Amino acid sequence: MANKKKVALACSECGSRNYTITENPNRTERLEVQKFCKYCGKHTLHRETK
Q1: Which of 5, 32, 35, 6 is nearest to 18 (CA)?
Q2: Domain ranges of the chain
Q3: What protein family is recorded?
Q4: pLDDT, tens only, 11-31
């Protein structure tokens, strides 16, 4: 089985990369999820980055 690439989820407010996920080759657009940012101290929108 091929190695799966990991991508990071970055906070849209402070830019810190708090979460990592495995890349899904079937998904064409970038993932956007509401997650808790420990640096901002609140739930913010996190976007997929490379």
Answers
A1: 35
A2: 6-49
A3: Belongs to the bacterial ribosomal protein bL33 family.
A4: 999 999 999 999 888 888 999
**Residue at token pair 């996190």:** 46
Q: pLDDT class for 3, splitting at 50, 70, 90?
A: confident
Q: Which of 47, 48, 41 is nearest to 12 (CA)?
A: 47
Could you please state the CATH topology (level 3) that the domain comprising 6-49 is classified under: Rubrerythrin, domain 2 (2.20.28)
Distance CA 22, CA 43 (A): 22
Q: DSSP string spanning 1-50?
A: -PPPPEEEEEETTT--EEEEEE--TT--SPPEEEEEETTTTEEEEEEEE-
